[in-house]
Design brief:
Layout lengths: L6 E2 L6 E7 L2 E6 L4 E4 L14 H25 L3 H16 L13 H21 L2 E3 L5 E3 L1
Antiparallel strand pairs: 1-2, 2-3, 3-4, 5-6
């Protein structure tokens, strides 16, 4: 499986090590606690290494963006793939990035923050219509 000999950490410029976290293959920089998973059955990184802040922002961006495209699929009666692709086209336009490269896993800190700020108001409206709100742990709760 191993084909890539090294990956560099964009934070400290050290070489990352190929390792495993919870039995999942990753490239990790121990100096920065930055890491990234790999494509299935390869050692190719999914994107650049992400530090704690970026990993947390990506999770939050995925959370809000995911609610949007899932709701679009329900509302429009389309497949999840079609809804997700349409949502990424919308997001690419808002972020002014190439649609082909508009994927949260490729985003930096600022792009994640912008995604959250773009999606959150829409998600808040969706939840309000359903008489739900987000608890501290991001689980929907009844009002």
């Amino acid at each position: 499986m191993r084909k890539i000999n090294y990956v560099f950490c964009q934070y400290c410029k050290n070489k990352a090590q190929f390792s495993f976290i919870h039995d999942r293959p990753v490239w990790i920089c121990h100096a920065c606690d930055a890491w990234i998973g790999v494509h299935v059955n390869t050692d190719k990184p999914l994107a650049e290494l992400a530090n704690r802040e970026l990993r947390d922002l990506k999770k939050k961006a995925h959370f809000y963006f995911g609610i949007l495209w899932h709701e679009k699929a329900k509302k429009d009666g389309c497949t999840q793939d079609k809804a997700k692709e349409s949502a990424y086209k919308w997001l690419a336009g808002k972020l002014k990035v190439d649609h082909g490269k508009c994927r949260i896993e490729y985003f930096d800190t600022e792009q994640c923050k912008l995604t959250i700020n773009l999606c959150k108001p829409h998600v808040d409206k969706i939840l309000a219509k359903k008489k739900l709100f987000l608890a501290v742990d991001n689980t929907p709760k009844l009002k």
